[in-house]
Specification:
Layout: H1 2-18, H2 21-34, E1 43-45, E2 48-50, H3 55-86, H4 93-124, H5 136-166
C-alpha cells in the first residue's frame, strides 16, 4: 500500500506544479490569434520550437496548448482514480469510466502532439525525419491505449466479482 501513497504524492506534486500554467494556457489561446506579431517569443511546446508568425504556426501553438490541456485533464482524472484506490473502491464505475476517459484523452493528446511535430518539421524545416528511438508522443499514445485496455479489464473483473459475490 505504500507504493500507492508514493504514486499519489508524485501525481499530486505534478498536479500542483502544473496548476499555475493552466490560466495562462487558457488565456493564451485567443490572444495568439489577436496578436499580429509574436515578437521575440520563442515558444517550445512538447519539444517543438515555434517561432514563426504565420497563421499555421499560430494554429500549431493552439493545437499544442490543447494537447497539453487534455493531458492535464487526464492527470486530474488519474488523481481521482488514485483517491478511489486509497479508499479501496477499486471496481467502482467511476474508476472504470475514468480509465477509459484517461485513455481517450491521452490518445488524442498524443496524436495531436505527433501531428504538430510532423507538420512543423515538414512545413517549416522542409524535411521528413524518421528517428529510431523512444518518442514521448508515441509513448503517450501507448499509455492511452493501455488505460483503455485497463478499463476493459476492470469492467470484466467487476462482473466476475459480482458473480462471485452472488455465489455463496
Amino acid at each position: 500500500m505504500r507504493k500507492i501513497h508514493i504514486l499519489k504524492a508524485i501525481v499530486d506534486f505534478v498536479w500542483i506544479v502544473s496548476i499555475p500554467i493552466i490560466p495562462f494556457a487558457i488565456v493564451a489561446i485567443p490572444l495568439i490569434f489577436f496578436m499580429d506579431d509574436l515578437g521575440d517569443f520563442d515558444i517550445k511546446i512538447n519539444g517543438v520550437l515555434l517561432t514563426s508568425n504565420s497563421i499555421l504556426s499560430k494554429v500549431l501553438i493552439v493545437v499544442s496548448i490543447t494537447a497539453f490541456l487534455l493531458t492535464f485533464y487526464s492527470l486530474y482524472l488519474f488523481r481521482k482514480v488514485l483517491a478511489y484506490f486509497l479508499r479501496l473502491k477499486i471496481f467502482d464505475n467511476t474508476v472504470i469510466s475514468s480509465f477509459n476517459k484517461i485513455g481517450n484523452l491521452l490518445v488524442i493528446s498524443g496524436i495531436l502532439s505527433l501531428a504538430v511535430s510532423f507538420i512543423f518539421t515538414l512545413y517549416f524545416k522542409h524535411k521528413i525525419i524518421f528517428e529510431v528511438g523512444y518518442d514521448s508522443k508515441i509513448l503517450i499514445i501507448c499509455f492511452g491505449l493501455f488505460f483503455m485496455i485497463l478499463s476493459e479489464v476492470f469492467k470484466i473483473s467487476k462482473g466476475m466479482k459480482e458473480e462471485n459475490d452472488l455465489t455463496i
